[in-house]
Each structure stands twice: as C-alpha cells, then as structure tokens.
Amino acid sequence: WVKEYASLQRLVIVDTLEKVRGERGANSYRGDYRAGTLLQTMEAPGGAVIAVHHSRKSTSEDFLEEVSGTLGLAGSVDTVITLKRPRTAAAAELSITGRDVDEMVYSVNFIDGKWHAADGSLSAAAKKANEPKLSDKMVEVLELVNSRECTSAADV
C-alpha cells in the first residue's frame, strides 16, 4: 500500500506499532531496533511516518525510558515524542527529542477535543513545563513560609 500510493501519500500513520512489527526474537534490543528501521522503509520521499506506541506503566526521570520495549526502538527512529498525563486529566506534558530537533518539554491541555499549548504559546508552554512541580502539601508549606517574616521548622 505504501509503495502503491507513495506519490500521493506524504504521511503514513501506523496505529499501533505492534500491528506491523514482526515477531520478536531472543534479542529484544535487536528486534526493537529492527521495528524502528522498518518504519523508515515506509517513508515516501519528502514524507514522514508516525507510529503510535505505548508507554510503560513504570515512571522514570527520563521520558525515553518510559517508551515500551528496549532503548533499541527509541534509538532507531529519528524523533521520539511522548505525551504523558494522568488518566482523565486535561493537563499533560509533551516531550520531544531526536536527531534533528531541539529537545523540549511542553505543558499542553486537552480542551474541547484538541491539544493546546499551555498559556497560549509554545514558549510559555515550555517555561511552564520546566517549573518546579510541588505537591499540594508543599504548596501549603511554601505559602506559610512566605507569609511570615521568620518561620521555624516547628511552625511548619
């Protein structure tokens, strides 16, 4: 299909990667790397391939480690974009890294069926994504400390 319509289709979306990847062998890294390489063979000249894939349930400081599978998959493609949000929440983080892109993290919101950059622009969304994230309890402590001229540990 991709070869037949290459002149008409500049964008191929694979939803999900698991539907087109081959059987995994004994070497998981090699299998994941091969799956990423396979995606690139679907690309028409001047076009792009987007593959939808899943994340792991476990979290990590590095968003690449949250991509399901080995690092062979993330290492074999040109760009990795992850979207992470708590279930049913509107607010999310969009993280991007790759060979030909600036590595960035953006705060985005899902409103009326569309994703929007937080605070209206990508630069504001990037700034918001890099703000320290405090729990509700820590926000209370910070407000208490900032409301006084002098605060002791006992006060907190």
Summarize this structure briefly.
This protein is of the alpha+beta class and 156 residues long.
Question: Mind explaining what this structure looks like?
Answer:
This protein has helices at residues 28-41, 71-76, 122-129, 136-146; strands at 11-15, 48-52, 79-84, 91-98, 104-111, 114-117. The chain is α+β, with helices and mostly antiparallel strands. It has a four-stranded antiparallel beta sheet with strand order 3-4-5-6. A hairpin with a 6-residue loop joins strand 3 (79-84) and strand 4 (91-98). The chain is elongated and about 70 Å long. The model has no long low-confidence stretch (mean pLDDT 88).
Mean pLDDT figure:
88
Task: Pick out the low-confidence regions.
Answer: none
Straight-line distance between termini: 65 Å
Strand order of the largest sheet: 3-4-5-6
Described by strand count, sense and barrel closure, the largest sheet is:
4 strands, antiparallel
SSE order: EHEHEEEEHH
Approximate strand percentage: 15-25%
Our count of helices gives 4
Structural Rg = 21 Å
- Indicate the overall shape: elongated
* Structural class by helix and strand composition: alpha+beta
Strand elements, count: 6
